[in-house]
Design a protein that fits this description.
- It is a single chain.
- It is built from 13 helices and 13 strands.
- It is an alpha/beta fold.
- The termini are far apart.
């Protein structure tokens, strides 16, 4: 699949475009010659940050809006060829603290956006940012797309609703939709000022501040991670490749224990410490235990696989936050 040909001079809309993944995707699309529009409501609880697109702000159109605003989204959607739907509430703890907001953002707002697309631009190609959280605590590893869905928090429930709205839109109305169930995505332009959205972002913050990396429990929990450039590749392939239409794909990477991940981060940085601490009760209740994804389906269908090794990705991330600390603290 020739990605450059697929997106050159094409109109592309990214919801959640000022966030972590959206801004990295926008930069890639600008390089590919796409005509890019970013929509973001700049929710203070999200990862939205105008600095994320500071280097390309004159090359993209930025609209501050909510995807649930039918009128505004109707005007934006009409002329677009592609929609990367990355808008959403991503905090697991946040979903338990305010489950109604979580459902509003990840459920109802997604359905409203799809209805706008259906009536205003039914041919638009949509890729939805899903999450491995829909699986809950795995009954086997690696987790493939056939695994039972038993989410442990409200975020997993609402994100599953969002992805099903996209898949039903394909099955019933023939719309071009696909879903990527992402695992722990990391890299430049994350929210790292707290641990609301991601543990590894907070670990970058702690490491650069000379704080102990806080590893919950005994640190033997296994996770997989994807560097953001690899995730951008997967998004582009899902939008461009005919085989992705109507499908759900897992992403994934090499499994690593959290303790080994902490050790690797300290080693790459050249200094630092980590400490095992008890699970906070609000996190222990929704912890999924061990997880790593089986990404053979997207590898077979679209030719995707991760390319950025964990050590390389950590080094790139630490370098970025070292240089841009004041923008993300």
């Amino acid at each position: 699949m020739d990605i450059a040909t697929a997106f050159s001079s094409q109109r592309v809309l990214i919801t959640g475009g000022l966030g972590f993944i959206g801004s990295n995707l926008a930069r890639r699309l600008v390089d590919l010659g796409a005509v890019v529009t970013l929509v973001d409501n700049l929710d203070p609880d999200s990862g939205a940050n105008r600095f994320n697109v500071s280097e390309i702000k004159d090359m993209v159109r930025i609209i501050q809006a909510d995807i649930s605003d039918d009128r505004q989204m109707s005007d934006v959607v009409r002329e677009q060829k592609f929609l990367f739907n990355l808008a959403g509430q991503a905090s697991h703890v946040g979903s338990m603290q305010d489950p109604l907001k979580d459902l509003e953002v990840n459920g109802l707002s997604q359905l409203k956006l799809l209805q706008v697309c259906r009536f205003e631009n039914p041919g638009i190609r949509i890729v939805y940012a899903g999450t491995r959280q829909v699986y809950g605590r795995p009954s086997y590893l690696p987790v493939d797309e056939k695994h039972l869905l038993t989410p442990l928090d409200y975020n997993g429930v609402s994100k599953h609703a969002g992805e099903m709205y996209h898949i039903v839109s394909n099955r019933i109305y023939g719309m071009w939709t696909s879903v990527l169930r992402m695992t722990n995505v990391y890299g430049p332009r994350m929210r790292v000022k707290d641990d609301r959205l991601t543990f590894i972002g907070w670990w970058f913050h702690q490491l650069l501040e000379g704080m102990d990396l806080q590893v919950y429990g005994d640190g033997t929990q296994v996770r997989d991670l994807n560097y953001v450039d690899d995730v951008v590749d997967a998004l582009l392939l899902c939008a461009a490749h005919p085989s992705a239409r109507g499908n759900i794909y897992n992403l994934g990477g090499e499994p690593v224990s959290l303790l080994d991940l902490a050790r690797l981060m300290v080693e790459v940085y050249g200094s630092g410490r980590y400490a095992l601490i008890p699970f906070p009760e609000n996190r222990k209740r929704i912890d999924i235990g061990d997880y790593f994804g089986d990404y053979r389906l997207i590898q077979t269908d679209l030719g995707w696989q991760p390319h950025v090794a964990l050590r390389e990705g950590i080094a790139k991330s630490l370098d970025f936050y070292s240089q841009n600390r004041k923008r993300y603290w």
